[in-house]
Design a protein that fits this description.
The complex is a heterodimer of chains A (about 160) and B (about 400). Chain A has about 160 residues and is mostly beta strands. In chain A, the strands form four sheets. Chain A has a five-stranded antiparallel sheet with strand order 10-9-6-11-12, with no helix packed on it. Chain A has a three-stranded antiparallel sheet with strand order 2-1-5, with helices on one face. Chain A is built from one helix and twelve strands. Chain A has one domain (about 25-155). Chain B has two domains: about 5-120 and about 210-225, Thiolase/Chalcone synthase (Peroxisomal Thiolase, Chain A, domain 1, 3-Layer(aba) Sandwich); about 130-205 and about 230-385, Peroxisomal Thiolase, Chain A, domain 1. Chain B is globular. In chain B, strands 3-2-4-7-1-8-11-10-9 form a nine-stranded mixed sheet. In chain B, strands 5-6 form a two-stranded antiparallel ribbon. In chain B, helix 3 crosses helix 13 (about 335-355) and helix 6 crosses helix 11 (about 290-300). Helices cover about 35% and strands about 20% of the residues of chain B. The chains are: A mainly beta (about 160), B alpha/beta (about 400). Chains A and B meet through strand 2, strand 6, strand 7, strand 9 and strand 10 of A and helix 4, helix 5 and strand 5 of B. Strand 6 (about 75-85) of chain A pairs antiparallel with strand 5 of chain B, so a sheet runs across the interface.
Chain lengths: ~160, ~400
């Protein structure tokens, strides 16, 4: 069996559709996007915000309750990167379009949380930590209660 | 602290990009046999077997169900573990817990991955929240890019030191017969490789590898009878951060850094380590990208914040240097992910035995830190010593 034996392989396609539940907290956040709002929730114990909203504060291990805080559409970039390499996207079952810029943005009104989205700006020379950006929402009739209701964040000239 | 625990046997396969010549059970079995031979034991001497890999990378559930015999689990106690990138280290920690409890005298730990089955990114991105960040997250590459960019801006480090770090790890890998990528690189070649996610270039990222690594852990009595010099697991710390990278709204450059720093500080405090660069002789830190190395060095307090790239520039991290890091060539050279955490411990143990061959560090090696890191926010570290 050593040496010149033919090596056998088969290809196994896996094409399954899964359902995923948002639950009430993330659901409120997503419905907020549809209404043009970015909502965080506040821990009733330590007072910190959660974005996206979560049902439990990991640090206090208590239920997050229903104190909702609407954050500003403008914020400050705290980190970013430029995605150049095409990669498989399990969300769509196909290769994802590149290039795009991703960033963590601390929105006005929520200094202890960062929001994760794309930047419109794709020139590495023009993106920096500390730059001011603003969320660009899709027109209301095109929104679907998803992160894609925000097109991207555009640069706000200082 | 429980019973004393030593590494009394270790073995690993040669790690490669594709292994069409072998199935995963045989891959596992090769590492298991090597570790048992090294310990001069048979599977009958083993009380429990801990196995790990990254679920879904090979496209099947309950990977252990198809490899019980190869792992030597038949009719034994044991567990299958998956904690993402740290799976291998979590398996070693579980083995350590078993022996330290006094209920088990000899425990076999085996980690493995056969990444030639499918693009691992497809399984990896399912760790992200489908509503929130799965559609944008760029996998591990994106995390290291974010880390690298932030590091450049805060420390004044340019692209060259990261490229040099990659060259040094490649030089180390060429001295490790088991390493996957044994590249002969120059800084210039690294800087010319294509950008995946800026500033991470292709050569900055770990490969996808097939391989397995096994350890035999023993109690003090087993260690005293061991033919090889036992290497003692003095302590281990695991820390978790919140789930998913951005959930919880982290404003840190990369959230796992908190867990890594907290776990390192706890390990040092519990063991009287006040000056890690002086008190630890070598490091196997699990560096999946050369851009991670600087952050790791600073979070493990090997140097002050913003200074790691200068130590790399001085080449202090080389095998012959004052602070040898990743003498094996590291994860950036070899990454059968489920095995990678076990390999860190095995490579550090080989160094402390003085059996690391061409990759043996020049300085006297009495203590080492081995660790693993995962984007799902686990961190696991180990303090290893030649002395009980």
């Amino acid at each position: 069996m050593e040496g010149d034996q033919e090596l056998l392989e088969i290809v196994i396609p896996l094409d399954l559709k899964y359902k995923w539940s948002a639950g009430p907290h993330l659901g409120t956040f997503l419905l907020g996007l549809k209404a043009g709002k970015i909502l965080a929730n506040r821990c009733p114990s330590c007072g910190r915000l959660q974005l996206p909203p979560t049902p439990v504060c990991g640090r206090c291990h208590i239920a997050m309750g229903q104190e909702w805080v609407e954050l500003g559409h403008r914020g400050t970039v705290v980190s970013y990167s430029f995605v150049a390499e095409p990669m498989y996207d399990a969300g769509i079952g196909d290769m994802r379009q590149v290039p795009y810029t991703i960033a963590a943005v601390v929105l006005d009104g929520g200094p202890d949380v960062a929001f994760f989205h794309r930047l419109e700006e794709s020139d590495p020379q023009r993106v920096r930590v500390g730059m001011r950006v603003e969320a660009v929402f899709k027109p209301p009739e095109e929104r679907e209660a998803s992160m894609e209701d925000i097109l991207h964040f555009r640069t706000v000239e200082p | 602290m429980g019973e004393k625990v030593a590494i009394i046997g270790l073995g690993q396969t040669d790690h490669k990009y594709i292994r069409p010549d072998i199935d995963h059970e045989e891959l596992i079995n090769q590492a298991v046999r090597l570790a048992l031979e090294d310990a001069d034991l048979t599977i009958r001497d083993i009380d429990a077997v801990i196995m790990d890999n990254m679920d879904l990378f090979e496209g099947h559930y309950l990977a252990d169900a198809m490899s019980v015999d190869g792992a030597g689990m038949y009719m034994k106690q044991g567990l299958k573990i998956n904690t993402g990138g740290t799976s291998g280290a979590s398996a070693v920690a579980a083995g350590w817990h078993h022996v330290a409890s006094g209920l088990f005298k000899k425990v076999l730990v085996v980690g493995w991955q056969k990444q030639d089955a499918a693009p691992s990114i497809a399984a990896l991105v399912t760790a992200r929240e489908p509503f929130y960040d799965r559609g944008m997250a760029a996998g591990a590459v994106g995390i290291f890019a974010t880390m690298g960019l932030r590091y450049m801006q805060e420390s004044g480090c340019g692209e060259e030191p990261a490229a040099l770090a990659r060259v040094i790890m490649a030089d180390n890998a060429r001295r490790n017969p088991h390493a996957h990528l044994k590249l002969n690189l120059t800084v210039d070649e690294v800087l010319k490789s294509r950008v995946l996610v800026w500033p991470v270039r292709l050569l900055h990222m770990s490969p996808t590898s097939c391989g397995a690594c096994a350890l035999v852990l023993g109690d003090e009595a087993s260690a005293r009878r061991s033919p090889k010099r036992p290497v003692w697991i003095k302590d281990s710390v695991t820390a978790h951060r919140e789930q998913s990278v951005w959930r919880g709204g982290c404003v840190e450059p990369i959230p796992t850094t908190t867990a890594l720093e907290v776990a390192a500080a706890k390990l040092y405090k519990r063991n009287g380590i006040t000056n890690p660069a002086r008190d630890i002789d070598l490091w196997e830190l699990y560096t999946p990208s050369s851009w991670a190395l600087f952050s790791w060095m600073e979070l493990y307090s090997i140097c002050d914040k913003g200074q790691a790239w200068r130590l790399v520039e001085k080449e202090a991290i080389r095998i012959e240097g004052e602070i040898p890091i990743e003498p094996s060539g590291g994860v950036v050279s070899t990454n059968p992910i489920g095995a990678s955490g076990v390999i860190r411990v095995a490579e550090a143990a080989l160094q402390l035995r003085g059996e690391a061959g061409e990759r043996q560090v020049t300085k006297k090696a009495e203590t080492a830190v081995a660790a693993a890191w995962g984007a799902c926010h686990w961190i696991v570290n180990f303090l290893l010593s030649r002395n009980a």
